[in-house]
Amino acid sequence: MNHAAPSTLVPALCPATASAPVGALSVGSGPQRASVRAAVVAAAIAAMAALVATGAAHAADLELTVDNIRSAQGTLMIAIYADPADYQKKALRALKLPAQAPSTTVRIPDLSPGNYAITMYQDRNDNAKLDSNLLGIPSEPYGFSGNPGNLMSPATWEQARFAFGPDAPRVVVKLSD
After folding, report:
1. Is the pLDDT of residue 131 over 70?
2. SS3 for 124?
């Protein structure tokens, strides 16, 4: 591989600019300059549209399986996060599903490839909150993507993070006992 400095590669790749300093390429004046500027803007817009279309074309469904559901009582409360700054604050998507023992699988549509984290709990009494005892330990089953071991606090983004894409379309989360 050629490791030459960028300033030495420019003349080699584009000989017409060999004698001009970087950024000093002249494109004429008046209508000619406006035409070049319009072409550059049109190319930039086309490139952005292609990126947006490409992202939509690569969106896929995530298959989420929830294991260790001990009873069909209550509702599974599932939150999906796409950004570490929003983790456990603002979910990208939130789902409520009836609990079905011993396992349930759901498809989450149209996720773009990237890093995600999932948190969930089984709201056995359907009060829309994760109940806990006097020490703050959850008294309802809960789980995180990545299935981190016994935790003394909620899983961090790094513990729950998983890469989603065409080669990894499935995630299994095991609820606590």
Report:
1. yes
2. coil
Identify the sign of the CA torsion 41, 47, 53, 56: negative
User: What distance lies between CA 82 and its chain's CA centroid?
Assistant: 4
DSSP at 42: H
The CA distance from 21 to 2, in Å, is: 22
Please name the residue that has the structure tokens 């998507």: 93
Provide the 10 A C-beta neighbour count for residue 122.
Answer: 25
Between vectors from CA 84 to CA 158 and to CA 76, what angle results, nearest 5°?
80
Model-wide pTM > 0.70: no
Contact assessment for residue 61 and residue 110, using Cβ atoms and an 8 Å cutoff = yes
Confidence bin at 21 (pLDDT 50/70/90):
very low
Contacts of 175 (CB under 8 A, 6+ apart): 66, 67, 68, 69, 70, 120, 121, 122, 141, 142, 143
Please provide the DSSP assignment of 74-118 as one string. SEEEEEEES-TTTTTTS-SEEEEEE--SSEEEEEEEEEPSEEEEE
Task: Look at residues 175, 165, 97, 108 and name the one whose alpha carbon lies nearest to residue 138.
Answer: 175
